[in-house]
Amino acid sequence: MHRLIINKLGPIEHSELVCAPFMTLTGFQASGKSTIAKAIYYFRTIKEDIMELAKKQALNGTVIEGLEDEYDIGSGAGLKQKLENYLREKFLSTFGSSWGMANDMYLEYWFTETCFVKISLKKEVRYQTPNYIWITLSPELGRFLQEKNGCFSVTPLGVPEEEEKWFRAELYRLFDDRSSVVYIPAGRSMITLLSQQISYIYAQMDDVQKRSLDNCTRDYLERILRLRPEFSVGLRGLATFSPRRLSLEIVKHALKLMKKVLRGDYRYSNGEEQIVLDDGKYVKINFASSGQQECVWILNLLFYYLLRQERILFIIEEPESHLFPASQKYITELIALVKNQGHSVVLTTHSPYVLGALNNLLYASGIRESCSQKVREIIPQELWVDFHGFDAWFVKNGSLEGCMDPELHMIQNEKIDEISKVINEDFDRLLDLQEEGVT
């Protein structure tokens, strides 16, 4: 089971959590939810980083035998050192400058009992740079990188597909992880609002300007620019290309939930993103509601990878943004539907409606077998959330509090009602004043 440790990074003082297949993070703004989500993204994408570095190494022909030694920090020639250099830059792009961070900041991610990566800070002696980012790889990972240094051959068509497939299987085994990562950040509406201009804006940016975007936002932006043409036939047209092993009922249910949230169907046509209405008319996405702009690419990405049947870890920030409570329920159900098809989810939320919807799905899963048919009539079984693979955390005062009820196997109501409690306390005080006759 994967395990994450964060010490003194951003708002987080110290936290440790075991990563469940379905996790929710809730709490007040600026409490550290995004810090945790970005840390998971940072570590879970390392296997893809290694794959790309190994391919570039082969294509560029930069392997120098004898310079890949475990203790040869300065050469930069071996795959191990290339990964360390890359992870250093990736940390800065994901979390910002280390200069203002505490000296004892560190991050650790344990993929298995013997495979881990640790990020910490130390004083740089050569360039007098404060808080130099130090990368520690587990001995098992270090040996793997040394053994695979220069492992790819190169043909006129690039790295042979069979070699790439073999190397990926080795990475899956080493990291105990077959999932690719799709990060969906908060603040999506601005990218959607500039839909028609965003391709031009991004193309005009040089590499330095692109690197100024945080890593997660850049990944999200590049992903939607790459995938938009796939939706030229609309959602239903895209569904016709789904693999046969995916149940037609699952696809229909996903489309139904998406329609309830989006109030139309998405289409990318003639360079425009559109919401197509029931009468065939459409609205350009930059003129759609703020709720539609916020949720459209959550829906699209969930549906696209549902059809592709690739294992994905979805990291979704605030899916409830600008959505009416009923739509928050439907988008939560869509996330659960997709998760139950073999994917994983990390969800950050401020919404009691999202947490309440998840509790319904957890409760439906836990009702005794004799009632299961009646439960299905209320909540379809493909939406049920198995509590064995679910965990919920409350981020507060720089640390994590588990907020699962150990007996009911549901999110604790007092955590869901945290803000309601504050509001109700104020109201009770006002009532007390009135009863006392104070004006």
Walk me through this protein's architecture.
- The structure is a single chain.
- The chain is an alpha/beta fold and 439 residues long.
- It is 46% helix and 19% strand.
- The chain is built from 17 helices and 16 strands.
- Helix 2 packs across helix 3 (79-95), helix 11 (248-262) packs antiparallel against helix 12 (290-308) and helix 11 (248-262) runs antiparallel to helix 13.
- The longest helix has 19 residues, at 290-308.
Content-based structural category: alpha/beta
Helical fraction equals 40-55%
Rg calculated over all Cα atoms: 24 Å
User: In DSSP terms, counting alpha (H) and pi (I) runs of 4 or more, how many helices?
Assistant: 17
Beta content comes to: 15-25%
Order of strands, widest sheet: 7-11-12-3-13-14
Q: What's the N-to-C terminus distance?
A: 59 Å
